[in-house]
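Q: Can someone sanity-check these two? First one:
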Amino acid sequence: MYAASLLWGAAQGLILQNWIAGWSPFLSLLVLYFLRAPREEQMMLDQFGEAYRTYRQRTGGIFPRRWRG
């Protein structure tokens, strides 16, 4: 969800000619991500523990990791 929102915000910034209207959603979403995501990660670790650590290592963070196999 965060990756899609950030990509959408970056695309809007590249498409619109107005720098303020174009890039302000991207910057807002970036701030939101850096404030919210660490708390969400901690909630997941508290709830699921080692199973979530294993899942996170396998899948990556905001962008998926490449599959090895």
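And here is the second, same format, sequence then tokens:
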Amino acid sequence: MVLTNQSLQSYNTFGIDVSAKYFSEIKSTDDFKALITEPGFEKEEKLILGGGSNILFTKNVDGLVIKNSLPGIKIIKEDPYHSWIKVAAGEPWHPFVLYCVERNLAGIENLSLIPGLVGAAPMQNIGAYGVEIKDTCEEVEAVNMATGEEEIFNNAACEFGYRESIFKHKLKGQFLITAVTFKLNKIFKPNIHYGDIKRTLEEMRVQEITIKAVSDAVITIRSSKLPDPKVIGNAGSFFKNPVVSRKLFNTLISKNPLMPNYPQKNGEVKIPAGWLIEQCGWKGKVVGNTGAHKSQSLVLVNYGHATGHEIYDLALQIRQSVKEKFDIDITTEVNIV
């Protein structure tokens, strides 16, 4: 079924009140193929919408918005050390993580409580606390929106980068991701040295570091730092953490000795964008109907009646102030439409 002039306010976690010329929710690959080949919609601009947790609408969508609700989780292969799980793109991400935690399958527990759907995970190469999707993604199944043909992308073909992939840039808007296969570990090697995980485990008085304990610690941290989109509109981290040259970092650290930093294998250095933004005075600052959250300056929020343009303008102001103070150009993690 295709709806016309459909409000998208409930389909994006910022709660931006825009509408789509046409809107359809798909629950099977066949439904999708039939939709994109329907004569009335062949020439319409198409936008794939997942959980709406990483998108900022700045205008109405003059085209067809397709809500990906493909369901299903299945263990497709096992050996003594690994399990391969195929997950449909429309499955919510966090419940899938819990599905793996309950079965003692390791690899994505550090990605607990990230909002959105599974289909967006490889597109964004989502990551947190030292773990990224590229570490466990075996392959991605997708449908070519121009031809209707199904294609499979292995890990290398996805061209994963920091918060990006081939689907976000080179092939942007050309494919519907239908399923993702993950290779997860039966032998658990905890990754707890990034962020506050180790300290949180100690505060929780965890006696044995298990997959569930790490997941619980991550949930505790994220719940304390990030506002619930159901309570206040937001899309989580709005900006990527910038990676700078060693030369620039040396200049910055000499002036800012307390600057947190994470050296990279290639010699560059990652700096938390939230810290940079906070140093520029944005943490908790309210600008009209929007602002940077009081607990995490990396999160821009909608206090109830903000437009997408208001939030985008705030983002530009923040970027400019960070550039002026630190000579670092922070870029958006959220997709702007």
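A (reply): Looked at the second one. The CA atoms of residues 101 and 127 lie 17 Å apart. The radius of gyration is 20 Å.
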